[in-house]
Amino acid sequence: MKQKLLFTLMVTFLISCGGKQDDEQKTQLTPVEEQTLYDRAKQLFGALPDKMPGSENDTEALIELGKKLYFETKLSVNNTQSCNTCHDITNGMAGVDNKPLSPGAIEGKIGTRNSPTVFNAGFQFAQFWDGRSPDLVEQAKGPILNPLEMAMPDEKTVEKTIAAIDEYKEMFNKAFPNVKKPITFHNIAVAIAAFERTLVSKSRFDDYVNGNRDALTVQEKKGMKSFIDNNCIMCHTGPLLGGSLYQKMGLINPYENTEDLGRYEVTKLESDKYMFKVAMLRNVALTHPYFHDGKVEKLEDAVKKMAWLNLGKELPDNEVADIVAFLNSLTDKNLENRKQAKK
Amino acid sequence: MKQKLLFTLMVTFLISCGGKQDDEQKTQLTPVEEQTLYDRAKQLFGALPDKMPGSENDTEALIELGKKLYFETKLSVNNTQSCNTCHDITNGMAGVDNKPLSPGAIEGKIGTRNSPTVFNAGFQFAQFWDGRSPDLVEQAKGPILNPLEMAMPDEKTVEKTIAAIDEYKEMFNKAFPNVKKPITFHNIAVAIAAFERTLVSKSRFDDYVNGNRDALTVQEKKGMKSFIDNNCIMCHTGPLLGGSLYQKMGLINPYENTEDLGRYEVTKLESDKYMFKVAMLRNVALTHPYFHDGKVEKLEDAVKKMAWLNLGKELPDNEVADIVAFLNSLTDKNLENRKQAKK
Asked: Which residues touch A321 (CB under 8 Å, ≥6 apart)?
């Protein structure tokens, strides 16, 4: 026991004396490394577009209606929940509720997967962790009727509830001109989706990719280099750094939570077991806890774990720290001054 | 034995009677499937740019010089080989020699890895199978001095050889104005790279991504869908469908040829064992044989094998056929009428 203590003390001493990690973090990249990194960032990721696909047809009236509906608690069975309850975009929240799984409107009910952020969601190739909805419109319909979420009994009840509110009549008429009966379940989702298409969330990383090389710190750039060199880019590519393909959770080493079969639940294909949509990493520093089951609280642990599960790598702590620094540069500029939430 | 024969005959009979595969291939995609596929193709791949990075500074004089040097057999020790010998761009060749490994200038010598195509090479993030050169200039220097390739003894000899040819003096002066002694080993590579940057090779796939939905056949589109849905896009992404990251050859199931350690030879990192640059798939139908060791002759076998090695999937024959059809749509339009080389 004494020997173990002595050893621990020695190791601690050696680590504190070394200071190598600190020095490395301060080391500037060479001009050639800078240029190479910049070229690859442009090639692999690119900046986020200003507009979301489909937004070209969104009118102000439609967006305004969608916004009201997004915050509408009457869309839940007991008037307790709106879209914003689980995908909170107010008070500096990053479009999530920061809970592992989200409680539903009915007491005691709880969702089965972590609520993903609504920011930039419409840039993704599919919606939900298992991609079961192709777009924001179909996505918006899900939670309203899901008994574990907003728990409305059926589409007709939703339509009646909204139609009974005077204010909506005029708004729907403006948003859907020349439509005889505009208040339909589908149109509610269409409007919500239009509002969600305005939730484009840009970060310092976009400034960097657009040419401002000083938008990222040295450590953030080194983290991006680690992120690229360690092949995180295999799945986390494109301007969202994710949201463009499905991947097996535990590609190399199996994930311990084997309950959720992922996309298999949609397709019933054996090859889709444990496949999930690759999470986009935009705003990831603020959207803890992590993974489809929300089982990992800290971003550094999520990075370490993913490297082990899907790349078969045990990343050293300094690389993890660099990658986490890089991931922080993907935070919305308006949210960046918010303190990184509970660690 | 008789029983086995009977069984084989029965299976053959059932397959020929079925005709299901043929019907499937003729089935049109629904308008929604068409749109989804198109959106994903744009997002995941995108069209090839018209110009290669760095080409904005290439003058006509530099390109002309580079072209002459590209075909210059005096760059090999016994005047037998030029760049074009292994990366043949004449007579409908797709920038390769279609040999598993390439014989060198010195009889009996042979290269250690399959010669990759020069078409579109400058769009890649690094050069050589192991990425040991960052760009075309550094790449061009390699084979000239490699004893297994053009086998020139040293840089000075190369410079003297070229300087002794009158025609080059004027060409170098034009290509490198205001440079006192322009004929250097480095400048030879600079000129060759400038010529190679003109070798942008576009295909019907680019027409499709640029908006001509009819540029691909139904089977090619279905093949693209299989290519995406089976996660080939995990590595084969971007406008080259590859050439943007390293990946382990045998990510899920080990590759049987364990001799070549790939990028490990460059970095000596354990994690780089069997890592190779992901091959771009532009012109892949014409660049057989396949893989870094050129061990696979047919494209369908390469598709099957990669699916097994890196995705852990046994693809059914009809999906392989569709994917191969899609890969054929990546062939340079000028080369497309060339008969697909020996099967």
From this structure: A25, A219, A223, A300
The mean predicted confidence, pLDDT, of chain A is: 92
B125: distance to nearest CA of chain A, Å? 7
The answer to whether the bond into B289 is cis (omega within 30° of 0) is yes
pTM: 0.86
Mutation pick from B34, B225, B227, B271 vs chain A, by most beta carbons of A within 10 Å, is: B271
Tokens of B238: 């971007």
**A32-48+202-342 maps to CATH 1.10.760.10:** yes
User: What residue type is assigned to position A45 of the chain?
Assistant: F
Across the interface, whether the CB atoms of A234 and B245 are under 8 A apart is answered yes
| Chain B CB contacts of A245 below 8 Å | 44, 228, 231, 233-234
**Which residues are A110's β-sheet partners?**
A103
The minimum CA-CA distance between A235 and chain B, rounded to whole Å, is 6
Of residues B83 and A16, the one with the higher pLDDT is B83
What are the φ and ψ backbone dihedral angles of B283, each rounded to 5 degrees? 65, 15
What are the helix (H) ranges across chain B? 2-18, 20-26, 31-44, 60-70, 83-86, 136-145, 155-163, 166-175, 185-196, 204-209, 218-229, 264-267, 299-306, 317-328
Selecting from B228, B246, B313 the residue whose C-beta is nearest the C-beta of A231 gives: B246
Closest CA to A299 of A328, A257, A275, A276: A328
- The answer to whether residue B33 is catalytic is no
Q: pLDDT band at A16, cuts 50/70/90?
A: very low
**Surface-to-core class of residue A22, CB atoms within 10 Å of its CB (0-12 exposed, 13-18 middle, 19+ buried):** exposed
Phi, psi of A233 (to 5 degrees): -65, -15
How do residues B189-204 score in pLDDT, each as one tens digit? 999 999 999 999 999 9
DSSP label of B91: T
Q: What CATH number is given for B55-196 in this structure? A: 1.10.760.10
- DSSP code string of A253-308: S--S--S--BTHHHH--GGGTTEEEPPP-TTGGGS-SBTTTT-B--HHHHHHHHHH
Ramachandran region, residue A151 (left: φ > 0; alpha: ψ -120 to 50; beta: rest): left
Q: What is the mean pLDDT of residues B212-222?
A: 97
Q: Find the helix or strand (DSSP H, E) in which B106 lies.
A: none
Kindly report, as residue ranges, where domains of CATH 1.10.760.10 are found in chain B: 32-48+202-342, 55-196
